Amino acid sequence: MRRPKSKKFKLQSRLSEVKEIELLESWIASGKPDSGSNPLSLPPPPKGAPIGRLPDGSFSPYAGSEKFSQLPLSKRTKDGLADAKYSKMTDIQRASLPHSLCGRDILGAAKTGSGKTLAFVIPVLEKLYRARWGPEDGVGCIIMSPTRELAGQLFEVLKSVGKHHGFSAGLLIGGRKDVDAEKERVNELNILVCTPGRLLQHMDETPNFECSQLQVLVLDEADRILDVGFKKELNAIISQLPKHRQTLLFSATQTKSVQDLARLSLKDPEYLSVHEESATATPNRLEQTAMVVPLDQKLDMLWSFIKAHLNSRILVFLSSCKQVRFVFETFKKLRPGIPLKCLHGRMNQERRMGIYAQFCEKRSILFSTDVASRGLDFNKAVDWVVQVDCPEDVASYIHRVGRTARYLSGGRSILFLMPSETKMLDKLQEKKIPIRFIKANTKRLQPVSGLLAALLVKYPNLQYLAQRAFITYLRSIHKQRDKEIFEVTKLPIDEFAASLGLPMTPKVRFLKQKVKDKKVLEGLTLVPESNSDKNASELLGGTLATGTPKKAELELDEVLATGRPEKAELELGEGFLLEKDAQHVEEATDIRVDVPATRVLKKKKLKINVHRPVGTRVVFDDEGNTLPPLAKLADTKTGSDSVNLDKDKVSQRYAELREEMKVVDKVDKALDRQRRKEKRIKEKMKWKRGRDEEEGDVESEDISGSDGEATNGRRNKKAKVYFDSDSDDGETKKAQDNAGLVTSAITLAEQEELALKLLSSMHS
């Protein structure tokens, strides 16, 4: 058993920590880089140069260093880096660490897989260590991530690098059921790695939870957190944080919006974009290709690609959760010869983390939404990134392809574009993305639409899933902002439905209305003024498709009519897609369209004219003459108020009702008394029958012993005994004497007949 450390040893360790902290602060202050400078432009220190305090009392420069050992870091942090086998710094680490160690705000932008995590984990540990932060000091740092998987990955890096420190850290993400346990411990944590939703939940619900002493705020994938999806949550969180703090923002595609920076209260931030001057915006070892694939051939091309790369680890991106589920379930039943997995935001947290771990370990194919496009670093290199659906913008494309070619490894990506989406290639090339266009080899294409149709017949639940996948894809295209690339009216929806195996194209009401409005606008711009009213009425009166939709079709239409968003997708706010759509609608309302006069009049008829005079009430007498409005209130004959007459009538009516109720109560009481009396007589007769049967059994045992021995093995069921008043006994006995019968001398049938006679005589 190890001996506990003595008080003298603890005192010496505390003194050594104090001396180390003083040394680090002096070192940082002496070599502080100039604000606005880029340490990458400085030459690294020569090999063999002394590190730390020099003989003349000065310190070695650390700006421009290439190794972690040359930075003013504590021994505990350096030991953690050495244990995790981190020795050399990447470009983003060389550029940001000299500034962040000085306590400055950072906006860091670098390519995917360039080591941004260590660029903010190290300053967090050093800031709290130099402040001698303890459990009693509360929350000192908050690291926010847009997705749960990325938050878990950051927490693992924090544990590996900071394992020699004594800080308490916690992972707060959604999808867990142990919220009560988190509430008990969250006040004792020093570092929180969390998602915005769960952090805001603790701020609102956990008693005594506060972040008034916060030292560092870190936003990983900051551009996504600052997006409209997290706007409400982030504003609520920032309002509860102190303004005097250090803020670190890192992402592959950074924002320069003044409004966003003002929301975070940044003070003279250092903007560091290490790859801004590079020739490409994506990793150099990434080979990128794109091909034109019609919408109805996308699944055929995906199936053919999978069959041709059975020995690769492939990450496939689709637009919606329903598409991911449909492709995963159908391809799984077709058995391509390689393990298949799916990952989307509608799954619970345990399944998501389990699938993420399995994909890291085994060679397989992962179908996913954009929940896996941000920050995830798979343990083993991803060979291919396949984008079946076009990303919404260039930033989404960069983050998707960034899951492969991490750090020093290579990778390949392929993008499927429809003929109407080819303009995306020009936008990618404008952002310095070296993507190469290739033509698809249709000879090796393996159609699967027939197999999917057979599966939908065999498994009816897949047919509903196919309809939902069809609807959600059209909805995702409809919600896109860039209408130059994404136009839902240009899609071949009938061919797309057939490619999913659907026997009929689901009816989509919003699509019909969109086509209808488009035709109306085209007609308004082309027809002459004289015939504009007639043509507009014809266009407005025309219909597209008739027929009564089925229940499933109505449900699908309701999804688009209500605009219900997917749950917990990327842990975005409930109105992520709706916010974008609202902005698009606001932009569209600025456009004025001249509509015909007939349409305007029709609109006005539906509105109430508030300036029209209010209607008046007219009263007539018996002869048909109109009366003044107040003439009815007074009695012209007596001069008395008619209200008093009404009160007298009301009181008289109440008196009559009371008399009627008294009579009814007497009748009800008599009937109730009679009913209870009949019930007592019936129960008394049952009790007497049971007693007579017992006496008869005793007599039979005395007469014949053989019968008694035969029935000795089974006991007679004990009859129920009812207890009534003595008066009832007298009445029953008297009634039996009047009938001239003795109950002990008659049979059971005769007793029942006697009871019926007694009951009938009582009613008569």
Automatic annotation (TrEMBL):
Keywords, in A-Z order: ATP-binding, Helicase, Hydrolase, Nucleotide-binding, RNA-binding
Domain DEAD-box RNA helicase Q: 66-94
Class of enzymatic activity (EC top level): hydrolase
Span list, region Disordered: 30-56, 624-646, 683-739
Domain Helicase C-terminal: 294-456
Compositionally biased intervals (Acidic residues): 693-704
Catalytic activity of the protein: ATP + H2O = ADP + phosphate + H(+)
Domain Helicase ATP-binding: 97-272
Matching Pfam families: CTE_SPB4, DEAD, Helicase_C
Domain of life: Eukaryota
GO molecular function: ATP binding; hydrolase activity; RNA binding; RNA helicase activity
EC number, UniProt record: 3.6.4.13
Short motif (Q motif): ranges: 66-94
PROSITE patterns per record: DEAD_ATP_HELICASE (PS00039), HELICASE_ATP_BIND_1 (PS51192), HELICASE_CTER (PS51194), Q_MOTIF (PS51195)
Biological role: RNA helicase.
Family of the protein in this entry: Belongs to the DEAD box helicase family.
Description of its domains: The Q motif is unique to and characteristic of the DEAD box family of RNA helicases and controls ATP binding and hydrolysis.
Protein name listed in UniProt: ATP-dependent RNA helicase
Species, as recorded: Sesamum indicum
Encoding gene, per UniProt annotation: LOC105176698
